[in-house]
Amino acid sequence: MKRSTKFALAAVAALGVAAVAVPVVAQQGQMQHDGMMMGQHGGMMGGGQSYAMATFDTNKDGTLSPEEMTAGIQAELKTYDTDANGTLSLEEFAVMHAAHTRPMTVRAFQMHDADGDAQVTEAEMSAMADMMQSHMGGQQGNMPGMGHGMMDND
Question: What's the structural domain count of the chain?
Answer without folding.
Answer: 1
